Each structure stands twice: as C-alpha cells, then as structure tokens.
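Quick start: read one record
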Amino acid sequence: MYSVDIMVMEHDNILRLIHVVKKVCCQLIEGAKVNDEDFRKMIEFIRKYADKHHHGKEEEILFAEMTNHLGAMGTKLIQHGMLVEHDLGRRFIMDLETALNQYKENPNVNDKLEIVANAVGYANLLIRHIEKENQVIYPFAQRSLESSILESVDERVKVFEEDATTQKVQDKYLEILKELEEKYN
C-alpha cells in the first residue's frame, strides 16, 4: 500500500534523527556544551517533518478513516493511543524548547538536565510509538479497512506528498537530517 510504504519510510528517517538526538544527549552527559543551533535544527525537523508532514498524513487521512470506519476498536487505538502519543511528543518538544531558551539566557546544570530529559523522553517515546504503528496500527488498517477506503487514503496521501514535494519539504528536512548525521555519527 503506497501510503503505508511512505509512512514507514518516513519512520526510518525519524528514527535516524532519534539516533542523532540520543548521541547528542550522551555527549552532553559526558560534558559537551549545548549546541543551541543544532538543537533548533532537530526541533525544526521534528515539528515540520515528523509532526506536520508525517503526522499530518496520519491524523488527517489514515487515522481519520480508521476512527470513522473501524468502530470502537479504531477509535480506541487512534484517539486513546496514537493521538495521545502524538500530543505527548509535542509536549516533550515544547518543554525541550523552553529548556533551551532558559539555558541560552542563563546556562546552568538544571536546564541542561531538562534539555537531556525532554530530548531523550521524546526519543524513547518515538521509538516505541513507531514500532506500534509499523507492527500494529498500519497492518490493522490494511486488514480492516475496505479496499475503496484504502484506495482513497492512497490517493489523498499522493496529493499530500505531491504538494510537499512542490514545496521541497522532504528535500529541506532530509538535508538537515543528513547534515546532523554527518556531524554526530
């Protein structure tokens, strides 16, 4: 299924960033200085690529169809599972940004701890979240939604992707990812 293949590939890219995040956090624990600019790039990637681009397709298209057509089980999996985790991830990133802002204003060990705690909290959440989507949610959708709905999801995801390609969303954020990987791997 086109849309699931795209989303799984995006998960791979998000996990690549998660690897960088954890690497940077380990360096901070070992005494490295906080690189504000690199953390801002990570936050931008997370907000624009992982959240707006990737979660946009899930929330606006696939998850909406699952909630609309798969009854109580679809609603429970999506509204009480995946969407809650999306919101929790957003909270980690808001708190990370707050800690970065405070650290930039007045560098101190407490805010450095908050930077690490929120970055690693986000990373660990996403690792488990992605595994659930890849292993449970997407296969459940493919098994349970009618073929006409799956075709509609694919068509809408193609349009979403074409719009993003026109705006060079994928190119921009995959370039940021490549730059961060080269620096930290």
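The helical segments are 2-29, 36-69, 71-105, 109-144, 147-166, 169-184.
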